[in-house]
Amino acid sequence: MYLYNSATHRKEEFKTHTPGHVEMYTCGPTVYHFAHIGNLRSYIMEDVLEKYLRFAGYDVNRVMNITDVGHLTSDADEGEDKMLKGARREHKTVMEIAQYYTEAFFDDCRKLNIRRPDVVQPATGMIDDYIRIVQTLIDKGHAYVAGGNVYFDTGTLDRYYVFNDHNEEDLAVGVREGVEEDTNKRNKNDFVLWFTKSKFEDQALKWDSPWGVGYPGWHIECSGISMKYNGEYLDLHCGGVDNAFPHHTNEIAQSESYLGHPWCPHWCHVAHLNTADGKMSKSKGEFLTVSLLEEKGYDPLAYRFFCLQSHYRKNLVFSWDNLDNAVVSYNKLIARLAVLDPADGAVDEAVLAELKGKFQKAMDNDLNTPNGITVLYDILKAKTNGATCWAAVAALDEVLGLKLCEKAADQRAREAKAAAAAPVAGFTVVSESGETDEAVETLIRHRAEAKKVKNFAEADRIRDELKARGVEITDVAGGARWRRV
Ligand code: AMP
Ligand code: ZN
Predict the structure, then answer these.
(1) Is the shortest distance between the CB of 121 and ligand 1 below 6 Å?
(2) Residue 173: per-residue pLDDT
(3) Could you tell me where the beta strands, DSSP code E, fall in 184-235?
(4) DSSP string spanning 405-428?
(5) What is the torsional sign of CA 275, 245, 269, 57?
(6) Number of the ligand closest to the Cα of 224
(7) Ligand 1 mutation target, pool 26, 39, 245, 288, most atoms within 8 A of CB
(8) Which pLDDT band holds residue 174 (cuts at 50, 70, 90)?
(9) Which ligand has an atom closest to residue 74 CA?
């Protein structure tokens, strides 16, 4: 599989430390509010990546953190803890906020058919590990204590910037714009590993440490959690593109300095979902959530389909019109599958393998989901039987996660029920003798309805029941004739 690697700026063959096994890490949500559908674009695409790796035969260990401490309102060391801000907004404790929005996040994931990672670790559950890592970084000369905080010393690195081609000055200006300089820092990009001297008095969560009572920086969480659950060699690290700098850059600095060897060779960043008027943000008035989509009558899986129609490295513009177009295509796909009979014939293994191969070719090319979706249309057009089409759609949907077979099966069941409930139009029942018998005629009509939906067993049963009552029927054009025998 070829996957774009942000660390090398090119598409590369994806290789793992242990053949056939992937250690994968994803930056999890900061649980101070609902996730917006932009955040969820990242999680949908990372879910497809994980599922595709499994489809391609890898065994995957996927780890994700839940950020419930240390992420400041700026991604650098400025502002206040987002969790504290959330707690204050809702007059609750930080832990109440964390629990509520963690559950809300996984609720959204369930609705979007995003698999729960193998390991989910809240950041507050690993404080001792961060303290141990920070102490090692100090012992190795990569970190220092100044003004009460512990800082990572980026001056000890041969190379700090990994993901961007900008020069250092430009970046530093970008990071610092409008922000008062922290004079404790030896180098402008040094960052906090452990805060003891908080810029705000009421930080809710604090722990004892060798450097005084305080709390960990955001970046150390992900390094600590990944090194614990993925081991020393991570194969693949994912996140939204805004995580690349400074968060991922700082994760690499800490982890490699701590381990003393390269840490993660492959980095995957999902481009942003934006609205026509710019970046999607939680601080903007009405922010777009899965619940809002549902309130407006949208199936969350139609949003998943909308995301998959675009490549993960391209910015995606959200608008209700764009979503409506995706809904139309998604529903058409389901309807086209629903007219095929899954019991039609036996699965043609050669055709199935060919269709899966075509899908694999699309996805092996940097997870090209738009082309992967095109293969769904190829399946529906394929000159093969219903059983093979259903099997092929089911196989691809293990990765795409659109619940196509489930929805098409529901549609078939609904249609069969509606057909069975509707009387057969223009069906006339007459007796040869001219008599009328309501019970007999109702049974004859039921038999016609059963035949219409191809329930031949029921039709035969009714014929036998009529025979037992001494009634014989003859099918004629547009109806049936009966007589007593
Ligand atoms: P947060 O909860 O802010 O820590 O973000 C959770 C994830 O969403 C991170 O991987 C971010 O990089 C990602 N993210 C944030 N904004 C967007 C966006 N507009 N589109 C796609 N991903 C985003
Ligand atoms: Zn992270």
Answers:
(1) no
(2) 47
(3) 191-195, 215-216
(4) HHHHHHHHHHHHHHHHHSPPTT-E
(5) negative
(6) 2
(7) 39
(8) very low
(9) 1
Distance 81 CA to ligand 2 centre (A): 15
Q: What global pTM score does this model have?
A: 0.87
pLDDT over 90, % of the chain: 73
Q: Which ligand is nearest to the Cα of residue 241, counting in written order?
A: 1
* Ligand 2 centroid distance, CA of 27 (Å): 4
Angle of the 300-308 helix axis to the 94-111 helix axis, nearest 10: 70
Q: What is the pLDDT of residues 405-459, one digit of tens each?
A: 999 999 999 888 877 766 777 788 888 888 888 889 888 988 988 888 888 888 9
Q: Is the CB of 222 under 6 A from ligand 1?
A: no
- CB under 8 Å to 284, separation ≥6 — which residues? none
Contact indicator for 435, 441 with CB cutoff of 8 Å? no
**Ligand 1 and 272: CB distance under 6 A:** yes
Whether 41 is in the pocket of ligand 1, judged by its Cβ within 6 Å, is: yes
Contact 102 CB / ligand 1 (< 6 Å): no
Residue 144: HSE in the Cβ half-sphere, 13 Å Cα cutoff: 12
Residue 394, both tokens: 């089911």
In angstroms, rounded to a whole number, what is the distance separating the alpha carbons of residues 457 and 206?
71
pLDDT-derived band at 169 (thresholds 50, 70, 90) equals: low
What is the 316 CA–ligand 2 centroid distance (Å)?
A: 22
Candidate of 242, 275, 314 to mutate for ligand 1, largest count of ligand atoms within 8 Å of Cβ: 242
Under the phi-then-psi rule, with left for phi > 0, alpha for psi from -120 to 50, and beta for the rest, what region is 151? beta
Please give the Cα distance from 40 to 290 (Å, whole number). 9
Residue bearing the CA closest to ligand 1, atom 7: 39
Q: How far apart are CA 30 and CA 83, in angstroms?
A: 8
Beta-bridge partner residues of 269: 239
Instruction: Take residue 399 and report the two structure tokens written for it.
Output: 């990765």
Rg (CA), the chain: 30
For ligand 1, atom 15, name the residue with the nearest CA.
39
pLDDT in tens, 100-142: 999 999 999 999 999 999 999 999 999 999 999 999 999 999 9
Instruction: Determine if ligand 1 sits within 6 Å of the CB of residue 280.
Output: yes
DSSP states of 294-353: HHTT--HHHHHHHHHTS-TTS-EEE-HHHHHHHHHHHHHHHHHHHTS-TTSS---HHHHH
Strands 10-13 and 21-26: unpaired
The token duo for 418 is: 């509606």
pLDDT in tens, 325-378: 999 999 999 999 999 999 999 999 999 999 999 999 999 999 999 999 999 999
Residues, the chain: 485
What SS3 class is residue 286?
A: coil
